[in-house]
Design goal:
Length: 262
């Protein structure tokens, strides 16, 4: 597979804090690439650099996307190139319908008038792709978090996504919703969509990822080819924390004191 994205020596500094220090990552076209690391390692910051949340000029290093050097100055710039990020805090408006949320800012209109029949037709097609049976006129506040995630992905598909970035997509989902979302990612992969997923759930990473990059303390530590049989949870944890974990859940001795409430 050819390389779709390279981020080379990305350094991002906030006042008094170096959040990213010469981080490099390469993502192949058509793969699911997982990024793992402890809280505060710099994973989300790296994706915000990529998507233009932190614009070109506010960081050091280079982004090469589809064989061209990219200088995204806003999310709009990256979306125009097919890079869509879905943040952990979903960006949907609860009181609007599914159709209105999907095409908000990207309305299907003619001469300044929204074409609602076309909007609803396209929404129905997008909902079918993500496996959501609700109607386009359903208000988002009537949906659970799992279904709202699917609406976000449908919204990404409406923008002709080539590279889909998901930041902790299953953090607030039930087990069944998480599995459905992972199944959808694998289906999108079969359709040629490249994905980057940030996740703490290592069993999910092992299930869907083709490649895993581990970031620790703002630096890229390792890149592991999951298809080569090198990927284990112990390997990921060791790279995340910087040492072998002989006891991931160490035994603790409880020393109960006197009764303080009865």
């Amino acid at each position: 597979m050819s390389t779709l994205l390279e981020m080379r020596n990305i350094t991002k500094t906030f006042p008094g804090v170096k959040a990213l220090n010469n981080v490099s990552i390469a993502v192949r076209e058509g793969e699911i690439h997982a990024i793992c690391g402890e809280n505060g390692a710099g994973k989300s910051t790296l994706m915000k650099v990529l998507s233009g949340v932190y614009p070109h000029g506010s960081y050091d290093g280079d982004i090469v996307y589809d064989n061209e050097t990219a200088a995204f100055r806003s999310i709009r710039d990256s979306e125009d190139r097919g890079i869509i990020i879905i943040h952990q805090e979903l960006a949907l408006i609860p009181l609007l319908t599914i159709a209105e949320n999907i095409f908000l800012g990207n309305e299907r209109a003619s001469h300044g008038v929204i074409d609602w029949p076309e909007t609803f037709r396209e929404t129905e097609g997008l909902l079918a792709k993500v496996g959501l049976r609700e109607t386009p006129g359903t208000r988002v506040d009537s949906l659970g978090v799992g279904k709202q995630q699917l609406v976000e992905i449908a919204k990404a598909l409406s923008k002709n996504v080539r590279l889909l970035i998901l930041d902790e997509p299953t953090a607030a989902l039930s087990e069944s919703d998480s599995q459905a979302l992972l199944d959808l990612l694998l289906e999108l992969k079969s359709q040629g969509v490249t994905s980057i997923i940030i996740s703490h759930k290592l069993n999910e990473v092992r299930r869907v990822a083709d490649t895993v990059t581990v970031i620790r303390d703002g630096a890229s530590i390792s890149t592991i080819d999951a298809r080569g049989g090198e990927l284990t949870e112990d390997r990921i944890v060791r790279d995340m924390v910087g040492r072998d974990m002989a006891h991931r859940y160490p035994e603790r001795e409880s020393r109960a004191g006197n009764v303080v409430f009865e």
